[in-house]
């Protein structure tokens, strides 16, 4: 365990609302996919695909024993020749139904086409969650949203780390002592200081 990294992470987050906000949002994410059991769809904008969050949710699903957290990455530029886990296009949002959860990650305003598909998914009964920079149209469609303004202390990538860790943490049994929390903080600090993973 790297105590220095844990201390740095605590210092960065001390006095902010981010730990509580990301823990609540991560809990909502986990609760939605576990209680509904219909799967998690993850989509970004045409300019921004949330590869990093997808990879961390896959890790959290394995670490926490909650396979429902492992998302289906929905891509704007998916092609039939792509590997199966990368070949899911926007048409999948049109097929979203009750029991499924759709997490939209949008660092900038989503285009009208994406908003229309998100609206259709919600109307069909999917739970919509949004992690974005404060788009009103997306927030109006979302059952729950977490806004990361551009002028905040943390960037969207860092908040995605916190959300994925919180979703996995909420799936774990209550810690018996400080060891569990310190291990998770250490792992999160490692993630925050590591280079982004290669695309799948």
Q: What number of structural domains do the residues give?
A: 1
Strand content: 5-15%
Q: Helical residue percent?
A: 40-55%
Helix-strand category:
alpha/beta
Give Rg in angstroms.
16 Å
User: Distance N terminus to C terminus?
Assistant: 28 Å
Largest sheet: 5 strands, parallel
Order of helices and strands: HHEHEHEHEHEHH
CATH architecture: 3-Layer(aba) Sandwich
Which CATH first-tier class would you pick?
Alpha Beta
> Treating each run of at least 4 consecutive H or I residues as one helix, how many helices?
8
Q: pLDDT under 50 segments (min length 5)?
A: 174-179
CATH topology: Rossmann fold
Which outline best applies?
globular
Spatially, the strands of the biggest sheet line up as 2-1-3-4-5
Average pLDDT over all residues: 82
How many beta-strand elements? 5
How would you sum up this structure in a few lines?
With 200 residues, the protein is α/β, with parallel strands linked by helices. It has eight helices and five strands.
Describe this entry's structure for a reader.
- The chain is α/β, with parallel strands linked by helices and 200 residues long.
- 36% of the residues are buried.
- The chain has one domain (3-9, 36-193): Rossmann fold (3-Layer(aba) Sandwich).
- It has a five-stranded parallel sheet, sandwiched between helices.
- Helix content is 48%, strand content 12%.
- It contains eight helices and five strands.
- It has helices at residues 3-13, 18-36, 51-64, 91-94, 112-123, 136-141, 156-169, 178-193, and strands at residues 40-43, 72-74, 101-106, 127-132, 144-147.
- Helix 3 (51-64) links the parallel strand 1 and strand 2.
């Amino acid at each position: 365990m790297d105590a220095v990294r844990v201390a740095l992470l605590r210092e960065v987050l001390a006095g902010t609302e981010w730990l509580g906000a990301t823990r609540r949002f991560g809990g909502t994410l986990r609760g939605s996919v576990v209680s509904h059991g219909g799967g998690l769809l993850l989509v970004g904008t045409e300019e921004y695909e949330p590869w990093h969050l997808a990879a961390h949710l896959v890790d959290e699903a394995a670490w926490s024993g909650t396979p429902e957290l492992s998302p289906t990455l929905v891509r704007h530029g998916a092609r039939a020749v792509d590997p199966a886990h990368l070949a899911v296009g926007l048409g999948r949002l049109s097929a979203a139904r009750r029991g499924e959860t759709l997490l939209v990650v949008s660092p900038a305003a989503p285009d009208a086409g994406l908003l229309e598909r998100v609206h259709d998914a919600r109307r069909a009964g999917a739970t919509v969650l949004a992690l974005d920079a404060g788009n009103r149209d997306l927030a109006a469609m979302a059952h729950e949203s977490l806004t990361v303004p551009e002028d905040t202390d943390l960037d969207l990538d860092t908040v995605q780390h916190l959300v994925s860790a919180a979703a996995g943490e909420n799936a774990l049994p209550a810690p018996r002592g400080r060891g569990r929390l310190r291990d998770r903080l250490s792992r999160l600090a490692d993630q925050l200081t590591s280079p982004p993973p290669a695309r799948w």
